[in-house]
Each structure stands twice: as structure tokens, then as C-alpha cells.
């Protein structure tokens, strides 16, 4: 790495905690406790951990949809105080407008949100065309969401996210509702669109939540492993697999080692979260 390529910090979480008070009982849940993390500009971070460990809560606080009970979150050195077009969010359930076509959905924020306010009609149309093409949906511009497969709907959601020009992408299990094969294809598509072959300075900073360890290893520069009750950062694993990641990546022995290392960090909690009293002895539980 050349000296001028030293990455700058895009997001900084400093001792972030979040408690929720149940209105009916007054009971307090400490959802996230003392999470500290620096995320570099252009970095792709995946967060994994058992159900209920606070992954979505962390993402929502970065999005500005929730506020930390203690600690602080900064973007480019400035405290995050609410939602902003600089941070785009994508969820599992598409969240497309069913009465709008593909191109209307992609252009939604450019008509109704701040990012597109300075654009002429022609610039908006060109921007929509560009992102529809980038996600591989040219020819489907006039279709409605019900005419699309799940994979195509998430392509639309990704195009809409990018059309608004955020510099941070926040994705909460965006591929979680897709079948296994579509998911593999979209993982690779996501890396292409993110720009895995481009210099890091041109990439957006991405945070991606998943339950799928192999998905995390395939996508990420670093995987944040969380543990629950309360939600904490258990480990941060560097994914030292070369980019570009492609169909050969999963055959790399290092891919299997990293997946196993992460599984071993969460296996006990994952078994308990799935209703078992305890995980079986380690040797028997090692994934193939
Ligand atoms: N709005 C809320 N009010 C009360 N409790 C909440 C709220 N949101 C989250 N929690 C609690 O905070 C904890 C963390 O929840 P969160 O949704 O962040 O977990 P998660 O890791 O995203 O889980 P999953 O993998 O199932 O999506 C859980 O105990 C959850 O019940
Ligand atoms: Mg969640």
C-alpha cells in the first residue's frame, strides 16, 4: 500500500450502547453494549451474530433512525443526529412501491427527496437510466414489482439506493429472502456494482448484515462478529482473501478456514438461539 493510500475513517462508533424500555412493563433491555468500531472509507464490513444480538440496532443508529443511549457515532468526524441522504438503507423486504414501475421506484428519491432537488428532468432520467443499467435491469423499466422475481426486486432496491448518491450503504439482510442460487449471483453482482475492482477511494463504504457466514466471508473486508445479551463486538476478523472475489473464491482453502473460525465464535450461541440446551462437541459441529 502506498502512503497516500492510507484509508481515512468514514464511520466511528465510540462506546455505543442502546437500551430499550418496554412501555408496558417498564423493563429495560440492553440491546447493544459498549460497541466501538472504526470503519474506513471504501471498506465493506459484514456484521454477523445470533438473532437478537443487536445487529439491526447498530445499523439503525448509523442510519440515524435510532439514537444511542450512551456513546457517539460519527461520520467524517461529525456526530450523526438523524437520517440523511448520505446514508442509504436497504432491507430484506424490498420496500418498493407496488404501484410504481421499476424506473419510478429507482427515481423516487430524485423526485421526492433532497438528493434530486437540484437535478433537471433530463438529469434525473439519465441518472435513473444509468442505475437501472448498472443493476442489469435495462428492458424492465416499465414493469411493476409484482412482475419481477425476488432477485430483480432487490436489484431495483439497490438501484434506488445508489441513485440517491449516498456515500455509505447500510444493508440489513438484503439477500435474506432470496433462494440460495439467486443469492450467490446477487452477492457477486453486489461486489461488481460496489466496485470491487475499482480503487478503494472510488468505492462506497458498505455495512451489510447477514446470518450467512459464507456470505459475510465472500463479501467483506472485515467481519464483525457480535454476541448477545447484551449485544457486543466479540471479534473483528480480517478477510484476507484477494479481490476480486468470484466463483473461485469459495474453493480457496482460506475461505473455508475463515468461515470455520467465525462459526466457532458463534456456534454455542447459535445453538442456544435455535432452542438447543448446548452445542455438541466442537469436532462434530465443524461445518464441511
Ligand atoms: N424498538 C425496540 N423496542 C424494544 N426492544 C427492541 C427494539 N428493537 C430491538 N429490540 C431488542 O433489542 C435486541 C436486539 O435487537 P436487534 O433487532 O437489533 O437484533 P438483531 O441482531 O438484528 O436480530 P435478528 O438477527 O433477529 O434480526 C433484541 O433483544 C430486541 O428484542
Ligand atoms: Mg436484525
Describe what you observe in this structure.
This protein has 288 residues and is of the alpha/beta class. It has a domain at 94-166. Helices cover 33% and strands 23% of the residues. It is built from nine helices and ten strands. It has helices spanning 55-63, 102-106, 108-112, 121-134, 150-163, 180-194, 213-219, 253-273, 282-285, and strands at residues 9-21, 28-40, 44-48, 70-75, 78-79, 87-90, 168-172, 205-209, 222-227, 232-238. It has a six-stranded mixed β-sheet with strand order 6-7-8-3-9-10, sandwiched between helices. Strands 2-1-4-5 form a four-stranded antiparallel β-sheet, covered by helices on one side. The chain is globular, with a radius of gyration of 20 Å. Residues 1-5 have low confidence and may be disordered. Adenosine-5'-triphosphate binds at residues 20, 29, 31, 49, 51-57, 231. This is ABC transporter ATP-binding protein. Belongs to the ABC transporter superfamily. Residues 11-253 form the ABC transporter domain.
Order of helices and strands: EEEHEEEHHHHEHEHEEHH
- Supply the number of helical segments: 9
Percent strand equals 15-25%
The strand count comes to 10
* Amino-to-carboxy terminus distance: 35 Å
Named once each, the bound ligands are: adenosine-5'-triphosphate, magnesium ion
Which of globular, elongated, flat, extended, rod-shaped describes the shape? globular
Q: Structural class of the secondary structure composition?
A: alpha/beta
Q: Please state how the strands of the largest beta sheet are arranged side by side.
A: 6-7-8-3-9-10
* Percentage of residues in helical conformation: 25-40%
Radius of gyration: 20 Å
Tell me about the biggest sheet?
6 strands, mixed
**Kindly state the mean pLDDT as a whole number?**
90
Low-pLDDT stretches are 1-5
Protein name: ABC transporter ATP-binding protein
Keywords: ATP-binding, Cell membrane, Membrane, Nucleotide-binding, Transport
Pfam families: ABC_tran (PF00005)
GO molecular function: ATP binding; ATP hydrolysis activity
Amino acid at each position: 500500500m502506498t502512503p497516500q493510500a492510507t484509508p481515512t475513517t468514514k464511520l466511528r462508533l465510540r462506546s455505543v450502547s442502546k437500551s430499550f424500555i418496554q412501555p408496558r412493563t417498564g423493563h429495560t433491555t440492553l440491546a447493544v453494549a459498549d460497541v466501538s468500531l472504526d470503519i474506513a472509507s471504501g471498506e465493506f464490513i459484514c456484521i454477523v451474530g445470533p438473532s437478537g444480538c443487536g445487529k439491526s440496532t447498530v445499523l439503525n443508529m448509523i442510519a440515524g433512525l435510532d439514537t444511542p443511549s450512551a456513546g457517539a457515532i460519527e461520520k467524517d468526524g461529525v456526530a450523526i443526529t438523524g437520517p440523511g441522504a448520505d446514508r442509504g438503507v436497504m432491507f430484506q423486504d424490498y420496500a418498493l412501491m407496488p404501484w410504481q414501475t421499476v424506473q419510478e421506484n429507482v427515481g423516487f428519491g430524485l423526485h421526492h427527496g433532497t438528493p434530486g432537488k437540484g437535478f433537471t428532468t433530463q438529469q434525473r432520467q439519465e441518472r435513473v437510466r444509468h442505475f437501472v443499467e448498472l443493476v442489469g435491469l435495462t428492458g424492465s423499466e416499465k414493469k411493476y414489482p409484482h412482475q419481477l422475481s425476488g432477485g430483480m426486486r432487490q436489484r431495483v432496491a439497490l438501484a434506488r439506493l445508489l441513485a440517491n448518491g449516498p456515500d455509505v450503504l447500510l444493508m440489513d439482510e438484503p439477500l435474506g429472502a432470496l433462494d440460495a442460487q439467486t443469492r450467490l449471483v446477487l452477492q457477486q453482482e453486489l461486489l461488481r456494482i460496489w466496485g470491487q475492482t475499482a480503487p478503494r477511494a472510488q468505492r462506497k463504504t458498505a455495512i451489510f448484515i447477514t446470518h450467512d457466514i459464507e456470505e459475510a466471508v465472500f463479501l467483506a473486508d472485515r467481519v464483525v462478529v457480535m454476541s448477545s445479551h447484551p449485544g457486543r463486538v466479540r471479534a473483528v476478523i480480517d478477510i484476507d482473501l484477494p479481490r476480486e472475489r468470484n466463483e473461485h473464491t469459495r474453493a480457496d482453502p482460506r475461505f473455508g478456514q475463515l468461515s470455520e473460525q467465525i462459526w466457532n465464535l458463534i456456534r454455542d450461541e447459535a445453538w442456544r438461539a435455535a432452542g438447543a440446551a448446548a452445542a455438541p462437541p466442537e469436532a462434530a459441529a465443524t461445518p464441511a
